[in-house]
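To fix ideas, we close by showing one paired sequence and structure record:
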Amino acid sequence: MNTTETALSPDANGSPTIRTWLGVFSLALGAALLVTTEFIPVGFLPSVASELNVTLGAAGLMVLVPGLSAAVAAPLIIVVAGRLDRRYLIVALGALVLLSNGVAAIAPNFAVLLIARIFLGVAIGGFWGVVPALGFRLAGEAAGTRATSFIMAGVSAGTVVGLPAGQFFGNLVGWRLTFAGAAAIAALVVVAQLATLPKIPPIGTMRFVHLGRALRVPIARTGFIAAAISFIGQFAASTFVTPFLLQDVHMEPAMATLVFLGYGAAGIAGTLLGSALVARSRIWTFVAAAVAFGVILVFLPLLSGAPLIVAILFVAWGLIWGLVPLALQTLLLSATPEMPEASSALLVTVMQLSIAIGAALGGILVDSAGLTTVFVVGGALAVAASIFGALARKGV
């Protein structure tokens, strides 16, 4: 069965219904909540370190652990879920987010807090293994790319909200109540998904062998390589945006915060507006976006003496990066129509590991060669990713 099948809940004309779009929106909210919850600890790491008597470096595990857990959990959950209705699987994963935040809010020590963050990683892996393929299944082939772009826009929205929300609410009410608030929002999202999502039977039963089969599809295999390289380049550079803006560009903290918000908002816009480009050509949208943000990364250090130009380029970077995950996701779904969940699960694993590798690579480069080298290397990797994207077009 193809991922671009008829919508599960069409109206009399075969088009997605209002309830279908509400269901898509509930998935976007779930995506935004996951990403927000993943990154809010960045805003209050010192408070957690102080209260639970751990070092600041150890407290940073709250951000690293969910990503690594997601990388492991994504393929496992798809296999273990078997023939479970995906509606109930999504709701169960939302309940796990609620549990994670609830346990984090009352954690008596750092070990329990890390266990709570492992729960979150499992939810992230399962959610991104299942949900990306549902844009087409819920909305049908004609509206599938647009539905997928709405869901993926939740990632950019969560990125915008996560860090400032952690800083603001962590200072206002403390980190425990911030986690408690996230748990309450998770409960509302679960209710919304129960109310709006139709029954979503699985497309066959996924086995570990399907993961291997997805890797044997030439276009998909090359797409995974392009995804890995682009994410390593992106996060090698983006991890060190703050010191670049404050130290090299000499921006005031308030201005840097505005640049962050502009970057995130542009990412949402890029994901939503990019659906039309992706519908026309998934591969060339990725290739063009990778080249464009790679060039921006290379030129940013050269323009550090012009804060306004740097700010504009950062917003452009966010806009262009918003196209990349959407193009990659739809490319891989179209390359593996018989096993969409397998390719989605593998993409989650690739992305999460690449994020960790990118951040580690950036750290090594910062310490050994400085911030300029980080951005140049990140840009070069993005351009290299575009080459593999172009090769995917030839099925190699």
Summary: Residues 1-5 have pLDDT under 50 and may be disordered. Residues 208-392 form a domain with the Growth Hormone; Chain: A; fold (CATH 1.20.1250.20).
